[in-house]
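Retro notes, item 3 of 5
We never archived the inputs for the zinc ion complex last cycle. Fixing that now. Sequence and ligand:
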Amino acid sequence: MTRTELPPPRAHLSLSTLEPTGFGSGFLSGLVSAVLGIGGLGGVLTLRFPGFLGAAELRPLYGLADVRPAIALALLASLLLGTISACLRVNKTLAVIGTGCTLLAALLGGSQVPAGAQVGHGSWLGVDFFVVNLVLYSAVFIPLERFFALRPHQHVFRGEWVVDLTYFFINALLIEVLTLLTLQPAAVLFSWARLAPVTGAVASLPLIVQVPAILLIADFTQYWVHRAFHRVPALWRIHAIHHSAENMDWLAGSRLHLVDAVVTRGLTYVPIFVLGFPQTALIPYVFIVAAQATFIHANVRWEFWPFRRFIATPAFHHWHHSAEREAVDRNFAVHTPLWDRLFGTYYLPDRWPAAYGLCGGRDVPSRWLTQLVYPFRRKQSSSATKSTGRDSATTGTTRGHDEHDNHRN
Ligand SMILES: [Zn+2]
Ligand SMILES: [Zn+2]
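Structure as it came back at the time:
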């Protein structure tokens, strides 16, 4: 049979595809359709159930008059782009997600859905926070990683993107709980440590000093908490989830066990709270940490010479995720390599890592729920221990640093 006699490829739904992804292939239109469709549906749901689904922090930032036209535009664009993608592409997954979400949003009332009543002050799930995050991060990082890719052949939907997107979704959805768990322990346990002369002096500093001061102080605390997560076997079991990512991009940074996120953020906030930094300085800090923590995971080739010795860059953090042994337990900071340089854990050669993930093998599961329980489960089999060489982490026995380094995975 000659090539021309092959039957045309049949329309199908699949999470992986070998079809081209360039302009005109229906991939970009499908991707934008899916993002806008999910965003539009989330917006409609948040309008319908604001007390249940709307993050309290975001509520003062938008009015119904502002979001309704934006939701209408997003849904319309999603429908159009989804239709274009469905016509151009054999794999209809993105088009179905986009148009499906749009139709569901329309059935629920579309952008004119009646606004539900607010339920008290608290909310449970930050669907609006997820929508804002999804649209903003996709709009910034997908083009960035396409035009300035460190690894151009790495696809948007690379291996294990589903689990990372699940983290992205759940972390945004639980924003209310995570914020509470970050702020409350410091407020409850360390109010006694706040001294009026100190908090007064800190509050009187100009904003331009407060924000860099928070970044330096937070990074110092975060450095040691992060280092402890690497060095204490029971904590490493939790943090290993973050290091199990074998593809680096903006989404990979979301892969963080809930306990890891809460403990790290909660402890990092303690000195900031005790010193009494005002909310006006905390807000820029929260934006900077969210942007930088995402950016340093991105699949972007920028090296930022000559600033890379002072600012944490993608190269700096990519080496933290390297599967090469010489990079094990290096580059713990998020904002500046200064702390790593001071405490002897700085590692930044003039090349990029060859591979990412757990060096020496991996026994971390690949689904969100199994990763959630993984650190608290007893070791299943001796073969897994042999393959990873990390029996100390699973039994909880403490080992010397040299052996820890040799066996870290
Ligand atoms: Zn780490
Ligand atoms: Zn990371």
